[in-house]
């Protein structure tokens, strides 16, 4: 399903006093002490390969990394990463379990705020703008941490441990790579009021023949109205001519930019694939996106997909205008000026450089993971937004107070 994973390298040119083999040996001992024998074996098998050494070298060179280390039972049977006897598959898998920052509970914001952190993973089939790596969205769970996936949570099990620059969290599963934007819609996205939010939008995509367009947008932000929003305007939409309905869909996609909530600043505007604008604003009631005189409330953002990120909103923008040349221009502009992992502020763990690894063997498509429990009727809102701080200030806050910003998932 994916090929040519590319590992982000941080500080590759730094020469460490400790030799890599000493570092790796220490790391292996740390895994053994934490009862993570498969991690020990996994590291042993990758450390005799070039690409494994490169990944381990990067870990050593980084100031701080956190590993979500699958417990022994989680290594079988082979999941979407393929047979984990193969060192390449192990490196691919680990590259998505490792973030380049220190995710220790005491450094993280109070739930339900979450932290968005860069992993080491990117590949040709996971195309994000500006060579960005895929992110993990992590929340403090007290005890431990929870990694938020669209429709399930992966929790840490047992105590955190430390070795050198590494923070180790044992987990009861392997974090699967993000699936594509369309696949996410067909899952039950977990959000507070418990309905299936995206099924209605999928219907609109197929009735406008824009399913492929949606799925084929790479490095994009997808505003997806929840079901009750779609139901509220379904009649109106049915009455539109085809080209107007298509315009409505295109005006919910931003081509060439992944918008994570921690990066949003009051007054930001984005040009849609329809060539119209969406602006961001917030007030005491919540965070909103504005289009065509309509305000849509942010319901849940930061749902990573293999081709971008989904933001759930509570209103369908009935923007039927289009401006193709504006849209094309914006998409090109977005790509030309895409923030890289180094310049993307508000996300924990900056990435400085990338390195190509050899191709992996192919992997199976991830399957749906179980059912979703949500707290029905919860209408709790939380809006914590890091404001527009320059990166260097943000970084110093990071070291003093907490990890990162974050935001708003609410009904
Ligand atoms: C995984 O690969 C190893 C070594 O190639 C092989 O012995 C093992 O049977 C494979 N496991 C599965 C479940 O395919
Ligand atoms: C995942 O965790 C969050 C809070 O940490 C919770 O609100 C949500 O319901 C959980 N989702 C599932 C599917 O358990
Ligand atoms: C991570 O943060 C914790 C808590 O502040 C600290 O004890 C630990 O030494 C840090 N680890 C690294 C590698 O920075
Ligand atoms: C919208 O209306 C169409 C036609 O009446 C119907 O088939 C569809 O189920 C409705 N969709 C939603 C999400 O209400
Ligand atoms: C996104 O922009 C690229 C050009 O940068 C274009 O080729 C592609 O068709 C656009 N996709 C969508 C869904 O707008
Ligand atoms: C915040 O903005 C939204 C959208 O414009 C509006 O509906 C809401 O009443 C505003 N809330 C406050 C407290 O001003």
Automatic annotation (TrEMBL):
The keyword Transferase is annotated on this UniProt entry: no
GO terms, biological process: macroautophagy
Signal peptide: 1-17
Domain FAS1: 185-317
Coiled coil spans: none
Protein name: FAS1 domain-containing protein
InterPro entries named among the record's database cross-references: Adhesion/Biosynth-related (IPR050904), FAS1_dom_sf (IPR036378), FAS1_domain (IPR000782)
Domain of life the protein comes from: Eukaryota
Protein keywords: Signal
Any one cellular-component term (Gene Ontology): extracellular space
Pfam family, one: Fasciclin
Keyword Lipid biosynthesis: no
């Amino acid at each position: 399903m994916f090929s040519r994973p590319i590992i982000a390298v941080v500080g590759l040119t730094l020469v460490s006093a400790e030799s890599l083999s000493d570092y790796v040996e220490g790391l292996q001992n740390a895994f053994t002490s934490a009862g993570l024998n498969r991690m020990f074996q996994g590291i042993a098998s990758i450390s005799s390969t070039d690409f494994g050494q490169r990944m381990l070298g990067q870990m050593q060179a980084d100031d701080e990394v956190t590993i979500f280390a699958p417990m022994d039972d989680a290594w079988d049977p082979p999941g979407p990463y393929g047979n984990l006897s193969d060192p390449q598959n192990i490196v691919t898998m680990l590259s998505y379990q490792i973030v380049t920052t220190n995710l220790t509970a005491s450094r993280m914001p109070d739930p339900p705020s979450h932290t968005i952190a860069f992993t080491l993973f990117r590949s040709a089939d996971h195309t994000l703008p500006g060579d960005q790596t895929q992110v993990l969205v992590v929340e403090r769970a007290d005890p431990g941490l929870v990694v938020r996936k669209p429709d399930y949570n992966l929790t840490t099990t047992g105590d955190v441990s430390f070795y050198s620059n590494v923070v180790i969290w044992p987990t009861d599963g392997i974090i699967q790579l993000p699936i594509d934007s369309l696949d996410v819609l067909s899952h039950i996205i977990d959000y507070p009021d418990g309905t299936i939010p995206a099924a209605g939008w999928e219907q609109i995509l197929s009735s406008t023949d824009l399913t492929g367009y949606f799925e084929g947008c790479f490095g994009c932000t997808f505003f997806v109205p929840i079901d009750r929003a779609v139901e509220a305007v379904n009649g109106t939409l049915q009455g539109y001519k085809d080209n107007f309905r298509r315009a409505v869909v295109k005006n919910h996609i931003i081509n060439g930019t992944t918008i994570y909530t921690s990066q949003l600043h009051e007054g930001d505007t984005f040009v849609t694939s329809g060539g119209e604008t969406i602006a961001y604003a917030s007030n005491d009631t919540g965070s909103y996106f504005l289009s065509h005189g309509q305000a849509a409330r942010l319901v849940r953002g930061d749902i990573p997909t293999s081709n971008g990120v989904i933001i759930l909103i509570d209103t369908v923008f009935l923007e039927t205008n289009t401006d193709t040349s504006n849209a094309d221009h914006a998409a090109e502009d977005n790509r030309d000026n895409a923030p890289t992992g180094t310049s993307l502020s508000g996300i924990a763990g900056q990435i400085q450089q990338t390195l190509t690894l050899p191709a992996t063997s192919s992997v199976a498509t991830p399957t749906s993971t179980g059912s979703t429990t949500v707290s029905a009727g919860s209408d709790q809102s939380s809006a914590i937004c890091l404001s527009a701080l320059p990166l260097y200030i943000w970084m110093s806050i990071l070291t003093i107070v907490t990890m990162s910003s974050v935001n708003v998932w609410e009904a």
